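Worked Example 4.2. Consider the chain below.
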Amino acid sequence: MIAPYRFSLFIFVALFVLKTIQSSGQNLVVNSGFEEYNKNAFRKTCKFLFSDTINVKGWSSCGNDATESWHQCSSSSMYVSNKDLGIKPHSGKWMVGFNVMKYPIGNNQREYIIGRTLKPLQSGSAYMLTFYLSPRDGCEYGIEELGIAFSNNIVPSTNYNTDFSITPHITFPIADITQKGKWYKITLNFVATGGETNFVLGNFNPDFTSKTVVLSEDSKHADHWNEYARSFYFIDDVEIVEIQNKRDATLQLRD
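Applying the procedure from the previous section yields the following C-alpha cells:
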C-alpha cells in the first residue's frame, strides 16, 4: 500500500466543457483509450469481449474486487440490454468498467483503476485531466463523489485502500451522472507537485459515508442485477495534457 504524501493541487472541476483552455497538446496518459490490449486474456460473450480483470496495456486495477475490460467485438448496432451494457465505447472499441460500491452496505467492495503517465509530471506545471464516465445499464444506484490519488511510485495491485487510509488528492461530484447510455465528460485542472507517474481513480469513502443517488432511468433489466445491487461505471478516453496558464485553477487542496 502506498503511503499518503504531501501534495498541493489547484483544481477546477467541471462536468462537460465549460471553456476552452490552451494546452500543449500531448496526452501524457499511457494507452488513454484502452485500445492496446493483451489478446489472450479475454473471453467472448454476446456482442462484447471481456475480461474479469483489467487487461489493457498500461493499466491495472486494485482493491478487493476485479475491474473489467470490455471490447465491442461486433460491428452490428447495439441496443440497451443487460447483455449489451447499454452503451458503446466513447471512442474505438474498448472501455473499462469498475464497481464503486456494492450492497449490502458495509462490505466495502471496491475496484480502483490505476493509470500511468508517459513521463513524470513537472513541479509547478498546470495540467488538465479529462475522461468520460457513464453509469452501467441495470444498476439502480450511483454515488455522489469519486476521487483520484496521485503517486510517485507504483501502486500495489491488491488490497489498496481497503482500510480507507488513503486520502485522494482530488474529489469531484458525479451526482448528476445519472442517464444510462450517455457519456459525461469530466474535466479537472491541477498544478502538480512534481514526479507523479501513477494515478488511481475510485470511491475512497466507506459504504456508510458514501452518499448514493437513484439513477434517473431505471433499466427494464434492473432485476438481473438486484442480487448484486451495485454502483458501476464505465470509463473511456482518459487524458492528461499540460496547460499554459493556471488562472482557472482556483481551488487549493492539501493532504
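The first strand starts at residue 8 and ends at 15. The chain has no helices and 16 strands. Compare this with Example 4.1 before moving on.
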